[in-house]
Specification:
single chain; 468 residues; alpha/beta; Rossmann fold; 60s Ribosomal Protein L30, Chain: A; 4 domains; 7-stranded parallel beta sheet; 6-stranded mixed beta sheet; 29% helix; elongated; phosphoglycerate dehydrogenase activity; amino-acid biosynthesis; D-isomer_DH_CS; NAD
Length: 468
């Protein structure tokens, strides 16, 4: 990723992304996508096939006959009818496994922290906690991603909680079942068999486990069907096109803020957030590891907007202070690495009368704070407030912007207008009402000034910036 400067999206034609450095991708602003549904049926069918093969010793009987033996008594199997299948992970694959194995007469029980009992009951599966599931299940199959909470889910501590002779199946991700603990359980008889399609290392190096006579194994074939490969290839390609066209980010695993920001009604507010962040940097100067940012949203339409607007403000805030490109994917990661503290909150009523939905940003750098408020008018970002000074009609935030503050009672506009050359004609202008603290003015210029130094004799503060 360090050398792939133009890389924008990494697609995983499948579900698991533990073979992608998602954290590194996020730091580089690269979207990581998977196809969570494309291989569902193939993985479920493979799981069911592995359960049958393990129960009836099909691979062992096959090889025995190939070698010229007729070992009918040696490979005595077990029926599935009347047995209990424990399913850990009741998502799409777990559900498909449940409905298929029920056709064999199995009772299905399951656990998934994200699936309520009522939803599990819809496919005739009794939801229960793991502590209840272990001693009830004759077979245990896992359908979960490999994350810290699931690594070694079946291991030294959990095998003793299971039925004696329990059989386990893993067609999900290697590492969910602790291979060393599994081998011990097989040798002691606590585990009566294992069907494995995935391993902690691939190709696997645990030859003792692979060669064990109670183990049925395949080389990660869960999604290896012509139908699944075609399906996930088409899905990831369609997801790429939708992402590039700004339609959706279905399957994105590291871009929650960006996913919400693609909605047509939210795009103008994302642009507003970036503009407010850029203006805040212009006012506060270079951000430091002591920078604090507070983003406050107002109005019902922005009640759920904190995540993507916080990211958008951060993009604007850091756009000139980081070497890597800033976007909504890496904004939070980069801010955290720098040490910037970002907080978001929401209030129902807007503090300014011009709009029912607006965003306020308070940025504190080295103990000095500035507050900005803005909204969207005609799908364009508008500045409404700087440090409690209100722009009554609002100022469009676009193009080459010049912001300056004058002392109370001082009108600097004529002097500044005379400084501007013909190539820097004023496209728009707005000012706040006079107050004891002076007033703020904002101009949009046709082109940027070479320097604001020539203005400083007329104002107490001046800064310019370019906005998209």
């Amino acid at each position: 990723m360090d050398v792939a400067k133009n890389l924008k999206i990494i697609g995983r034609a499948g579900t698991g992304v533990d073979n992608i450095d998602v954290s590194a991708a996020s730091r580089h602003g690269i979207i990581v996508m998977n196809t969570p549904a494309g291989n569902t049926l193939s993985a479920a069918e493979h799981t069911c096939a592995m359960i049958c093969a393990m129960s009836r010793h099909l691979p062992q009987g096959h090889m025995s006959l190939k070698q010229g033996r007729w070992d009918r008594k040696l490979y005595m199997g077990n029926e599935l009818n009347g047995k209990t299948l424990g399913i850990i992970g009741l998502g799409k694959i777990g559900k498909e496994v449940a409905t298929r194995m029920q056709s064999f007469g199995m009772t299905t029980i399951g656990y998934d922290p994200l699936v309520p009992a009522s939803e599990a009951a819809e496919f005739n599966t009794e939801w229960m906690e793991l502590e209840q599931l272990w001693p009830k299940a004759d077979y245990v199959t896992v359908h979960v991603p490999l994350i810290p909470q699931t690594r070694g889910l079946l291991g030294e501590k959990t095998f003793p909680l299971c039925k004696s002779g329990v059989r386990v199946i893993n067609v999900a991700r290697g590492g969910v079942i602790d291979e060393a603990a599994l081998l011990k359980a097989l040798e002691s008889g606590q585990c009566g068999g294992a069907a494995l399609d995935v391993f902690e290392q691939e190709p696997p190096t645990n030859t003792a486990l692979i060669q064990h006579n109670k183990v049925v194994c395949t080389p990660h074939l869960g999604a290896s069907t012509e139908e699944a490969q075609l399906r996930v290839a088409m899905e990831i390609a369609e997801q790429f096109v939708d992402a590039v066209n700004g339609k959706s980010l279905f399957g994105a695993v590291n871009a929650n803020a960006l996913s919400n920001a693609l909605k047509p009604e939210t795009k103008p507010f994302v642009a507003l957030g970036k503009c407010l962040g850029a203006v805040a940097t212009a006012l506060c100067g270079q951000v430091t590891n002591q920078t604090q940012v507070q983003v406050i949203t107002y109005g019902d339409s922005l009640k759920q907007a904190g995540s993507y607007l916080g990211a958008a403000v951060t993009v604007g805030l850091l756009r000139s202070s980081t070497s890597n490109g800033m976007n909504l994917v890496n904004a939070g990661v980069v801010a955290k690495e720098i040490g910037i503290q970002i907080a978001t909150s929401h209030q129902d009523c807007a503090p300014v009368p011009q709009t029912s939905a607006c965003v306020s940003v308070v940025v504190t750098v080295n103990g000095v704070s500035h507050k900005l408020s803005g909204s969207v008018m005609s799908d364009s970002p508008v500045l409404l407030e700087i440090d409690d000074a209100i722009f009554v009609s609002g100022v469009m935030l676009q193009g080459n912007m010049l912001l300056y503050r004058t002392q109370a009672g001082v009108t600097a506009f004529p002097a500044i207008a005379s400084v501007l050359s013909s190539s820097n004609q004023i496209l728009s202008y707005g000012t706040t009402p006079p107050s004891n603290n002076g007033s703020w003015s904002a101009m949009q210029l046709a082109s940027p000034l070479p320097s604001v130094d020539s203005l400083k004799q007329h104002v107490t503060f001046a800064v310019q910036l370019s906005l998209a």
